[in-house]
Structure to design on (486 residues):
């Protein structure tokens, strides 16, 4: 069955399988080697981009819908996903949707369930982008990482969603080990330092950073260094159990 | 038109005016004179209690629906309401709803829009309960404040919603002036101290608390004391502008 058939069936009967007025959108932020990216989809037949997302199945918990989107678009499983905000503006979708469907060659009547108002619950995930396999969904023909600070304008209110996701991450770095999913289980202080510099987008004094991190108490130093080869090898750390 | 008529019409055609699968629930926490309370509704003809909440109108932004519930149930306007989490479990409502409707004398068929799955977006507000006028909605016959730590078990997943709202408040007290809505514009350090003790549910050493608050930088001391009568009158403070 080709994509057009899949979509035609989805448009015809999807409101039995899915909750019509509710979606999830995932801000999947990728970090690797000092770069910070966001995963975006290009919609079929257009040059317009959006976040990965989707409707919620009638029998599917909200969190599981978000986990399904994350895993289908990246191939990654058991990644920490955080719900951060529900986007409930009245006009958040309608202007953008009709031309996208037209470009897919599918006529969607004005009162169709697909073009009614949808409230979307935003989730965010932090992943190592080198380990993900970007995969388009049936609405899109390209799925790729973009620089978080240099990507095309997004469909719908997705620019707002990304901005708010990133604000949430930066805020949580102050108080919680949100970074845990971006580092191996055991890591060095220079690795953690680089992660914070990349996400916060600024240089952080090494000594002050180490002092600040130690005071927060969410990492603990192990009695072990990165390699056994040298006394100068950096100590390994791990995130402390949740307090 | 009596309540039964209103409800009968709502059940018959409410899914044209409201989004069927989406609601808001408001954890309205009330503080006054060292007491911390939560506003609850007793459903008609039952001894079962829930949070105030409601469906979202088709033409109403999500935040405005929550503000409408807050204002209709308390008479308070322009209160800071914070969205904190969307509750999207599959079975969060269905067990509890049928007996409530039966007790209202209204037959609701099993596939009726009112008893389908609803995802609810939780909002929280902190108010001075001495200034609110609790008012039941059409589903309920009593609306009153209960001690936050001593209230009846709640309908649906509302115990979870209250717990999470309170966790959010306690967490935010560590980093943000979420307490601003509970104090007059200018307040004394003893007033702020008492608020924190009440919300956190424990005694806080006066000196340590003052030091901690000053370090956080979200209040500023004014060049003014509470009364002009004595040099011992406490200084007045106000919350600093958002940083």
């Amino acid at each position: 069955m080709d994509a057009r058939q899949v979509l035609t069936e989805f448009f015809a009967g999807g409101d039995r399988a899915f909750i019509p007025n509710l979606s999830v959108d995932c801000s999947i932020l990728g970090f690797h080697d000092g770069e910070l990216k966001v995963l975006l989809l290009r919609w079929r037949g257009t040059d317009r981009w959006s976040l990965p997302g989707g409707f919620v199945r009638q029998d599917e918990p909200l969190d599981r819908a978000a986990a399904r989107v994350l895993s289908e678009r990246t191939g990654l499983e058991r990644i920490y996903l955080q719900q951060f905000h529900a986007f409930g503006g009245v006009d958040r979708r309608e202007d953008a949707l009709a031309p996208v469907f037209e470009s897919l060659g599918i006529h969607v009547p004005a009162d169709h369930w697909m073009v009614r108002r949808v409230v979307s619950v935003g989730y965010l995930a932090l992943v190592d982008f080198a380990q993900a396999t970007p995969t388009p969904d049936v609405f899109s023909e390209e799925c790729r990482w973009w620089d978080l600070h240099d990507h095309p304008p997004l469909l719908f209110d997705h620019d707002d969603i990304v901005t708010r996701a990133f604000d949430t991450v930066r805020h949580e770095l102050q108080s919680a080990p949100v970074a845990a999913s971006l580092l191996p289980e055991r890591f060095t202080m220079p690795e953690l330092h680089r992660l914070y510099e990349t996400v916060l987008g600024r240089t952080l004094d090494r000594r002050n950073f180490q002092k600040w991190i130690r005071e927060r108490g969410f990492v603990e130093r192990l009695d072990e260094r990165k390699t056994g080869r040298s006394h100068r090898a950096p100590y390994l750390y791990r995130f402390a159990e949740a307090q």
Remarks:
- The first strand of chain A starts at residue 18 and ends at 32.
- Chain A touches chain B at residues 19-22, 56, 58-63, 65, 83, 85-90, 117, 119, 121, 174-175 (CB under 8 Å).
- Residues 158-173 of chain A form the longest helix (16 residues).
